[in-house]
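User: I'm curious whether this sequence folds into something compact or stays loose and floppy. Could you predict its structure so I can see for myself?
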Amino acid sequence: MPTVNDSLLDQILKDEFEVADIPVEAIPALMIKLAGVQANLQSQLLTAGPEVDNLLNAEAVAGWFGVKEDYVRELGRRGEIPTVQIGKYVRFERSAVHDWIEQHRDKPFHSDHKKRENRKR
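Assistant: Here's the prediction. I'll summarize afterward.
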């Protein structure tokens, strides 16, 4: 796989619509590097101080986890990740999401959700 040089990243940062000029063979390596950048930025947001919005919707949490929104909602319904109810809206506290990640960092997470899906088959 070709390596990604900083000029490709600079090119994207200057104008995200200039990606058509990037050689096709460089795209897979670039996407991997961008995924790493995204993960680092999300981690920064996760550990940011109180000046950053503290409540997240299921879509944001799902993006961090790389899973479907429905799965995050299911974790919230079961109380595995604490939620905050604001009227009809359900939100996740940034610190609770961070704690959940830390608890599951070194061990696989097997939920009832998977067991139910397997029983349906």
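Summary: The chain has two domains: 6-46, 55-120. Strands lie at 55-56, 83-86, 89-93.
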